[in-house]
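Listing 4. Sequential folding, example run.
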Amino acid sequence: MAVLAAGLSCVPLSAAENVDVVQNGKAVSARFTGKAWDPTPEGLVAEGTERFIRASNGLDAGDFRVRAKLMLERLDGSAASFMIDDNQVGFDGRSGTLFFEGPLFGGTTQAGVAAAATLKPRVPFVFEALRERGTTRFLIDGVEIRRKEQWDAPVRSVGFRPWRNRMTISGFSIAGNLIQAPAPPAPLFASGTDGYHTYRIPALAVTKTGTVLAICEGRKNSSNDSGKIDLLVKRSTDHGKTWSHQKVIWEDAGNTCGNPCVVVDRETGGIFLLSTWNRGDDHEGAIIARTSKDGRRVFVMHSTNDGVSWGKPREITADVKKPDWTWYATGPGSGIQIEQGPHKGRLVIPCDHIEAETKRYYSHVIYSDDHGATWKLGGTTPQYQVNECEVVELTGGKLMLNMRNYQRSKGNRQTAISDDAGLTWRDQTHDPALVEPICQAAIERYCWPRGAMPGVILFSNPASTRSRVNLTLRASFDDAKSWPHSQLLFAGPSGYSDLAVLSNGKIACLYEGGASNIAESIIFTAISLESLTKDAR
C-alpha cells in the first residue's frame, strides 16, 4: 500500500487497491480540466472557476477511502469544494459555513459555523471521505462533518475545485475497488472548426423514421449572443453512431438566427423548427430597452424529408407575440406533440418573453392545432422571474412547464401546470430536487404507464446551485414529483442540453461542455434506461 505525503497515512481497506493521485505535491494519477494545476514547493496549486483536478480512476460499489491534504488561501464564500460525481462537499460556503450539494445530499444544505471553524486560511487540513458497509462519512481533520447511510453506488469521479479561491493540494489518494474513469466524450460540434467560432444552444429530435437531428447555433465570429448566428443541423440514421456533415438551415447575412426549438409531428412526419431573429448589431439590452434598430421576431421552418432540406423561414411574430413584449425566445431545445386527451395532436412550443413596462420576464407557450399551418399564443405563467423552459405531457391530461429560475434565494427549477393543453397555467412552484445555477434544462417523457409498469420522465441540466458544471441526467417514475435516479454525464463545465428517445429505446442527450468552458463543444451521448436507473442515489 502506498503512503500519502505530508503525514497522511492510509489505513488498508479490505481487498482494496490504492492509488496516489497527488504525491509529495506532484501529479501521479490525475486528470485536469482546464489548465493543469501548477507545481509549487507547497503542492499543486490552482485558482479560478475553470480548473479541476480528478482522480484518473473511479470507485466501484463497496468500501472506499478518499484522503487529501489541502489548503485554502482564504475563507470568504468562494465555494471551493470536494467533488464526488454530481455532488459537492464545500469547504467555503456563505457566512462561514460548509455546504453539501447534490442528489446524494437531497439538494443543498449548510453546516453550521462551528463545523467550519476548524478551517483557517493558509493552514493545511486533511479531508476524508470514507465508505464502510454502506455508511459514508465525510471528515475534516478527523472530525465527522456529515454522513450518508445506505449508499453503495459506484462513484465515477472524485476530485477538487478551487472555484473562486486558490487551493493547494500536497497529497491526494483513493482506495477501494478501482474502476477506469470514463474517457472524455468526443464533440459533435467543436468550436473553432468548420467555419464557426462557437457552437451553442443544442436542440435534439428523432423523426418519425428514426433519424436523429442535432441542431444548434453556429456563432460565426465570437461566442457572443449577438452578431452573425446561423442555425445548423447534423443528421444520423444509425442512432447517433455516425453523423452527416453539418448543413445550414437558416442564415441571414450578418443577423442573428437562433434559439432553435424543434418538434416532430408524429401524424404527418413533418418537422417544425421554431426560432427567433434579430439584427446582428442589436444587442439584448437595447431590444429590452426599445432602443434597438429592430425587434425580436419569431419564425418557423418546416422539413418534410427527415431534415434533409428545410423550407423558407416563415414569420409568425404577429400571431404569437404581444405588442408590449420586447425580448422573446423560443425554447430553446424541443417542444412536444400532445399524445393523449381531447387535444391530441396539438404541437406545443415553450417560449419566454419580457414585458416592456415592467421588464418582468415570464414563460409561455405557443401552439398549433393544424399540423403547423398556423400558430397561436397560449398561456403565460402566473408569476415572473422565469424564462427559458421546456414542456412535458403528464398523465391525466396535464402539461408541465419546467423553467429556468431567477429567484436567487431559490437555487432550483420552477414548474407550472396546465389543465387545458397550455391555454392557462397554475400552481407555479419550485422543485427542490432539481438544483440549477440559472441555466436552461431539458425535460422529456420516455414512456407512458402501462399495466403495472410506471411511466418515466427524464430531466437534464448542470446539477449545481453555484456553477454550470455536472451535466446530470435524472429519471422520475411519478410524473416528475420526485427524481430518485440520476447519472452524471459530464463532470466538467457544462450548460444547455436537450433530450430525446431514440428509436432503439436509448436516451439521447445533446449538451454543451468542455474542458475549460461550456462553449468549447456540443456533445452527443446515448445511454440505456437500465444504466440510468440501476443505481438510485
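-- end of first protein; second protein begins --
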Amino acid sequence: MSIIAWTWIIVGITFALYIGIAIWAKAKSTGEFYVAAKQIHPVLNGMATGADWMSAASFISMAGLISFLGRDGAMYLMGWTGGYVLLAMLLAPYLRKYGKYTVPMFVGERYYSQAARVVAVICAIFVSFTYVAGQMRGVGVVFSRFLEVPINTGVMIGMGIVFIYAVLGGMKGITYTQVAQYCVLITAYLIPAIFISIMLTGNPIPQFGYGSQLSENGMQILGTSGGYLLDKLNQIQMELGFSAYTSGGSKSTIDVFMITFALMVGTAGLPHIIIRFFTTPTIRGARASAGWALLFIAILYTAAPAVASFARLNMIQTLNNKSYTEAPSWFKNWEKTGLVAWKDKNGDGKIQYAKGNAFKGKLAFDTNAVGPYGERVVSTPLDETSTTELYIDRDIIVLANPEIAKLPAWVIALVAAGGLAAALSTAAGLLLVIASAFSHDLIKNVISPGISEKGELIAARIAAGGAVMVAGYFGIHPPGFVAQVVAFAFGLAASSFFPVIIMGVFWKRATKEGAILGMLSGIIFTAAYIIYFKFVSPDMNKAENWLWGISPEGIGTIGMMINFVVTYVVSKLTKEPPKEVQDMVASLRYPRTM
C-alpha cells in the first residue's frame, strides 16, 4: 500500500481511539473536568504527563534543531529535561499539598489578592496561547505531507479533533487519551530510530548507535568509507563549510546558556504541566508520578540526538551535489508542501548545500510553475550572500527521516500518527488550562462567585471551544519553527510564573504588591522583546542587535531576573502578608507524605 493509504489507516485508528476514550471518560463534574477528580494512578499520570510534556516541539522539532545546530541544539534537550527535574523535585510536592485546581488559584490565595489572581490568569492565557500555536503548526506540518492537504487545512482538522476530546472529556478524558497518545508517540519515535541504527551501525539501541562505527551495510548505504558515525558527520559538515557537528559554535556561549536556563525555569512555570500533579489521590502519588514521567520522557529524549545525527547524515548524502532528476523521492514529496525548496544559483543543474540561507524571507511559490529541471518554482528573492541552493524546514526532519532512510510505508505512516499524538496531547492540556483560567479563576472567583457547578462546567467548555479557534489562527500564522514558538512560551512562563511560585513557597515575606508588579514587569519585558524582534522589526533579529547577544528564545531568563528583583524590592517596601498567609507558607514547605 502507499504511504497515504497507510497514513489514513493508522491515523484513523488512533483518532477513533482518542475520541472513543473521550466519550467513555466524559467529565460529569467540575472536579472531573479540572483535575480528573484526583483519582489518576501515578503510573498512568506519569504516562499522561509524558505525553503532555513531549509536545510537537519534542517529537517533531527538537531533533530537527539538533540536526541543524549540532551540539548547540542540545540546549533544548538540556533545558527541557533539566526543567522537568526542577519542577518534579522543587515544586510539584508543595503545589500538590496546596491542593487547588490551578496556578492562578495558588497565586490568588498565596498573595491574598484578586488582582494577583487576575494577573496570573492573563499570564496563563498568554503563555498557553503562545505554546499551543506551536502545537497547531506541528499538526499542519504532519497533515500537509502525509494526507496531502494544505497546512491550513491540516490545522483545521486538528482543531476539530482537539475540540471533541478536550471540550467533552475535560481533564479526565484528556488524561486517559494522553496515556494512549504516549504509547503511540513513543512507539512511532523509537521504531524508525531502531531500524536506522541497525541499518547504519548494526546496533539496535539508537542511544548507543550514533556513537558507534558504521557497519558494512551503513558504508554501502551512505557510499562512504568506515569509521565512527559522528566522525563521518563532522568530516562531511566541515567539507561543506559548516562547523563540526559535535563542536557547536553556531551560537554564542551566553545565548546558549540563556536559552537553556529559560527553558529550564520556564518548565517549572508551565500551568499545563503543574496541573497534572493535582490529578493524583495523594502527595506521595504526585511524587511517584513525577518519577514515572521522568522515565517515560527520558526514553524519547535520549533517542533524539541519535535521530538528529542519522537524519543529518542521510539527508546530506542523498541530496548534496545531486541533479534534480537524481534527487530522492522524499525530497520531491516534501517539496509539494512548500517546506523544502531548491533554486539552481550557479546553473550547473545540481543541488548545492552549504552554510547560509538560500532565500530571503518566507518562501512563496509560483502556482503550478515548474522550473527547467522539474523543480517547483520559488518566487522569493535569492540570498546572494551564500552559495547554498537548498532550503529545508527544520520541522520536517523527524517526519521525513523514515522516508530518507527508505523505510517501509507503514513506518512512515506510524511516525505521522506519532507526531499528531504529540501535538494534540499537549494542545489539549493547554486548552484545558485556558478553559479553567476563564471559567474557574475569572468567572467563578471574580466575576460571578454564585455561578452553579453546571454553569461553570458550561462556561469551561465554551472557553475551551473559543480557545481552539484562537489556537487554530496562531497555528496558521506561527511566528517561527515549532520549537522556536514553544521556546517563546517557556520564556514567558519563566518571566511570569516561576519567581512568584518559588517566592510564594519559600519566602513568607513576599507580598501581593511585589507579586503583581513582578509578574507584570517580567512578562511585559519578555513579550515586548520577542514581539519587537519577531514581528515589529524582523530584519533586526540578529545577534549584533540583541541585548547582550541574547536571542528572543533566551530573553525569558532576563525577564525572570527582573521579576525576582521587582518582587523582592517591592515586598520589602510594602506591608508584610497577614499571619494566616505566612502560616500557610510555613506549612507548604513541609509536604506530608500521604
